[in-house]
Amino acid sequence: MAAKRRFQLVLIKPSHYDDDGYVIRWWRAMIPSNSLAAMYGIAADCAERRVLGTDTGIDIAIIDETNTRIDLPVLLARFQRHEGFGLVALVGVQSNQYPRALDIARPFRNAGIPVVMGGFHVSGCLSMLDGHAVGLDACRELGISMFAGEAEGRFEDLLRDAATGGLAPLYNFLSDLPGMEGAPAPFIPKQHVQRTLGFSTSFDAGRGCPYQCSFCTIINVQGRKSRFRTADDVEKLVRLNWAQGIHKFFITDDNFARNRNWEAIFDRLIELREKGGIPLGLMIQVDTLCHKIPGFIAKAKRAGVTRVFIGLENVNPDNLAIAKKRQNKITEYRRMLLAWKAEGILTLAGYILGFPEDTPATIRRDIAIIQEELPLDIVEFFCLTPLPGSEDHQLLWKKGAAMDPDLNRYDVEHVCTDHLRMSRPEWEGIYREAWSLYYTPAHIETLLRRAAATGLPMGSLIKLLVNFATTVRLENLHPLQSGLLRLKRPSERRPGLPRESAWRFWPRFILETLGKHAIIVAAISRLLWLRWAILRDPGASSYRDRALTPVDDNDHETLDLLTKTTGGRAAVAHARRIGELTGVGRAG
């Protein structure tokens, strides 16, 4: 039956503002939005099932603001043509995106168009605080409905409420998280996937995490009881994407190694790759003990994993214990990293600066240890941030501790609270210094030599090195917020900041863009020359350094990783005791 009415559903994933107040947007952004993919899949399923009635169709538009400009006049005109019959859904809004999300919502609400907001900020605040804390009343004042929890199986009721003009102020499903088996597949149409670097998309094979890291919001929003998609679900979404030519995926599970269906999923992906001819390329996130799972790393390689992100977080066990990251065992770091390197898989590690035991001096020491002793490829630095929804934030909030009132800064690259052993300027300074300390010309050459010796894809490593070695210096942004060709408009400056004249803005922007790209081209040229020189070196395949040396029983005596901190020495002693009791394993 032909639809008599067309409900306009606009899904928007907001960006946030840079330090100058301009929206962060790129011609091609680096990271695909899994929240947007999940919500589009859910919305498309609702449209297919005609949940608003057989005579009412649903037109879905999606906008990832990190790579697409929000054209407000065009969108407002669209709703006007349909007499306001529709809904704007602000998707996956994180705390740093919350101010921008409110600014996006304001003109729609002024025009009488319903708006709903979901994501980690709303869900985290409602989960851990009093329901009014950290800016949620701004939603109420604007008449924005809030959605806490996950939308599978619930979104159709919200759509019906919006269509009948009865949208509730709050939809809270935090205590009733849905199962994932058989849920609509995350999906983004090809024209939107093409706006990301690497032409990749994402999906979550599981949600929730059993660990208790105090800085994490996932356990308080998605729960500590893990829920999973099946291998059939994963095959369906892979085939759905392959039908439009997409075969690269970021599996966004916080820890895929703890997904109880990991082996069935890997086996299915291996079959699709080796028998079905789908050239899968995957990035996954895992913990530091995944190498102990029999067959996990070998099957990851066969399934198409080319990059793995590891939440290393710190090399000081005292810091890890304070953050309740007790599952990270520094005595296993080298063994785990060498296992991934043996399969030719690139390793990326998250490293948090600002734990209680950190000082500028200890951070410089620890970065040097990582360079010398750990066979890591890419290190991503973050500031320890009390994100709303985390235990860290809840404790500071209850104490009335000083925290930055501007949520735009809660992007894990700005300092938002005080530290016992560093001033805020010192903390911010060592965060920015950390990038230049790790990505020195000498260490970049070392990384390329290690890649040549271990069979890593040097071309892929070079792409990552260009991004991670230059973005903080050139853009004053974390590399994960980066992309290709920064886009700005004078009209998109944060409300409250002065609007720059076009005559001043555009010449400066063009000159800055040309200068930055000249530096990037020079960096690429140097890396390509280094690769050429290394590959011509007859001894390239036999290169060895301390990091590539196999794990040895004497590591606990010779490695700074295990001897320079009290926690490191205690970790070695503990590993020894366990080994003596079980007869399995060694301290190194």
From TrEMBL:
GO terms for cellular component: cytosol. The lineage of its organism: Bacteria, Pseudomonadati, Pseudomonadota, Alphaproteobacteria, Rhodospirillales. InterPro entries: BchE-like, Elp3/MiaA/NifB-like_rSAM, rSAM, rSAM_horseshoe, rSAM_sf. It comes from the Bacteria. SMART domains: Elp3. Residues 195-425 form the Radical SAM core domain. Keywords: Iron, Iron-sulfur, Metal-binding, S-adenosyl-L-methionine. This is Radical SAM core domain-containing protein. Coiled coil: none annotated. Gene3D superfamilies: Cobalamin-binding domain (3.40.50.280), tm_1862 like domain (3.80.30.20). Its cofactor is [4Fe-4S] cluster. GO terms for molecular function: catalytic activity; iron-sulfur cluster binding; metal ion binding. Pfam families: Radical_SAM (PF04055).
